[in-house]
């Protein structure tokens, strides 16, 4: 009997080696082991993003700029288009903390209003470019018969001189759209449309590369083997896996659109004078730059800080969304 018990105990130990060394599930008895909290992808991305100090400083700065242009008018209630000839060309004062321009308009109020317009142009143009780039990139990467013509179209747009093309578009369509939608609305639609239509190429190439890599992954091949239709495959499997490069491209697209709008306004082909933007403020201040240099420095500084902060936020997101950096 004793020999039989020893044989059974040896068989159990051989079937589960090292099992006798494992601690009991609950030494106190009568309980369940503590549950390990599930990892969240969003938390991992935020944790990695917070470790990027420059990106965090850029995020704080960008939020401060947004609050300046959106909540600032609630505190500083002077109209940006109010003309006071008696207060023209004033310096820093209590009544006008950043001075006035050649028509007596308050520069602080105009910087706030111009920031709203510039950021609206950047966000809208970015959305147009992102939609076009993602659509063309996914179609080119997933459908083999569309790859060659769509990539040739992308290369054609990349070969075009964008600034002369933008100038031509603004010159040709500015007056008809202004008559149909008003000077401000027509110019806004024209500028965001022109910038968006000429800024989608980089996004398309990045998304295409990601889709080409995804097509060879096991879960894509498994979904194809069970007959998943192409639209469902793209929406359920492809698109969620290319969100990371799209988000990074979006942040960089905002900066590009703001710079392009500022360049058009600086050349005098942007918004009308009574519709301020940061680029328009630069254009209006060029003639008196030597006498009143702060009129050029202030909008230029805001443009530079906004573009730098958005670019650094994009760098932080790129690093945070890379699973190799997060060490998954």
Automatic annotation (TrEMBL):
<feature type="region of interest" description="Disordered">
    <location>
        <begin position="17"/>
        <end position="40"/>
    </location>
</feature>
<feature type="transmembrane region" description="Helical">
    <location>
        <begin position="54"/>
        <end position="76"/>
    </location>
</feature>
<dbReference type="Pfam" id="PF12911">
    <property type="entry name" value="OppC_N"/>
</dbReference>
<comment type="similarity">
    <text>Belongs to the binding-protein-dependent transport system permease family.</text>
</comment>
<keyword id="KW-0472">Membrane</keyword>
<feature type="transmembrane region" description="Helical">
    <location>
        <begin position="242"/>
        <end position="271"/>
    </location>
</feature>
<dbReference type="InterPro" id="IPR035906">
    <property type="entry name" value="MetI-like_sf"/>
</dbReference>
<feature type="transmembrane region" description="Helical">
    <location>
        <begin position="155"/>
        <end position="174"/>
    </location>
</feature>
<keyword id="KW-0813">Transport</keyword>
<dbReference type="InterPro" id="IPR050366">
    <property type="entry name" value="BP-dependent_transpt_permease"/>
</dbReference>
<keyword id="KW-1133">Transmembrane helix</keyword>
<keyword id="KW-0812">Transmembrane</keyword>
<dbReference type="Pfam" id="PF00528">
    <property type="entry name" value="BPD_transp_1"/>
</dbReference>
<feature type="transmembrane region" description="Helical">
    <location>
        <begin position="117"/>
        <end position="143"/>
    </location>
</feature>
<keyword id="KW-1003">Cell membrane</keyword>
<feature type="domain" description="ABC transmembrane type-1">
    <location>
        <begin position="115"/>
        <end position="314"/>
    </location>
</feature>
<dbReference type="InterPro" id="IPR000515">
    <property type="entry name" value="MetI-like"/>
</dbReference>
<feature type="transmembrane region" description="Helical">
    <location>
        <begin position="180"/>
        <end position="200"/>
    </location>
</feature>
<protein>
    <submittedName>
        <fullName>ABC transporter permease</fullName>
    </submittedName>
</protein>
<dbReference type="InterPro" id="IPR025966">
    <property type="entry name" value="OppC_N"/>
</dbReference>
<feature type="transmembrane region" description="Helical">
    <location>
        <begin position="291"/>
        <end position="314"/>
    </location>
</feature>
